[in-house]
């Protein structure tokens, strides 16, 4: 099909390799029913090369055989630290057998990892249960998620993922 008739919503062959979406080659999940790492493990989804869970409970367990694919876990300190009430993160951490990182963010809330705090901050609105500013929420989320996908989809080493960063005192690195 020539370029003029190509569907603008379907990426070119070269762009497909760099997309971060439900379909190619990574999966980012947030909110209820996060299945990103599970999908990364399924043989039916071989094109998913990396998965990130942004503050979602693992409703679908990672297979006991692991995933063999890289997984980023980024969540609230209140709900997703290793001794939190949501025990699915620790359970799944133990099952993940590929490259993995677990970070939690102090003063964050469930929506910290979305655009909502950034947009709310621009309107002068804040969530009293999550005092981390919208600007800082966006910086942390974009920084860690971008570093993760840069590393695993583009092969670019990002030191941010190697351990605690003095530039991000709100972020705790877990390795239980």
Give a brief outline of the structure.
The protein is an alpha/beta fold. The chain contains 6 helices and 5 strands.
Q: How would you describe this structure in keywords?
A:
176 residues; alpha/beta; five-stranded mixed sheet; 6 helices; 5 strands; globular
Structure description:
There is one protein chain. The protein has 176 residues and is α/β, with parallel strands linked by helices. Helix content is 28%, strand content 15%. The chain has 6 helices and 5 strands. It has a 5-stranded mixed beta sheet. Helix 5 packs antiparallel against helix 6. It is globular.
Biggest sheet character:
5 strands, mixed
Low-confidence stretches: 1-34
Radius of gyration: 17 Å
Distance between the termini: 52 Å
Q: Order of SSEs, N→C? A: HEHEEHHEHHE
Shape: globular
Helical region count? 6
Strand content: 5-15%
Per DSSP E runs of 2 or more residues, the count of β-strands stands at: 5
Backbone structural class: alpha/beta
Please, what is the average pLDDT? Answer: 76
| Helix content bin | 25-40%
Strand order of the largest sheet: 1-2-3-4-5
């Amino acid at each position: 099909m020539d370029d003029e008739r190509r569907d603008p919503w379907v990426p070119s062959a070269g762009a497909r390799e760099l997309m971060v979406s439900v379909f190619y080659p990574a999966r980012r999940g947030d909110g209820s029913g996060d299945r990103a790492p599970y999908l990364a493990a399924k043989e039916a989804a071989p094109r998913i090369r990396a998965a990130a869970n942004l503050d979602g409970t693992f409703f679908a367990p990672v297979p006991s055989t692991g995933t063999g694919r890289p997984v980023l876990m980024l969540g609230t300190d209140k709900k997703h630290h290793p001794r939190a009430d949501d025990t699915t993160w620790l359970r799944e951490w133990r099952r993940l057998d590929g490259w993995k990182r677990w970070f939690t963010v102090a003063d964050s809330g469930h929506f910290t990892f979305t655009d909502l705090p950034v947009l709310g901050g621009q309107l002068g609105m804040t969530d009293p249960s999550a005092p981390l500013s919208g600007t800082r929420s966006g910086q942390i989320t974009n920084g860690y998620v971008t570093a993760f996908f840069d590393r695993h989809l583009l092969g670019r080493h990002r030191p941010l993922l190697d351990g605690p960063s003095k530039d991000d005192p709100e972020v705790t690195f877990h390795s239980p």
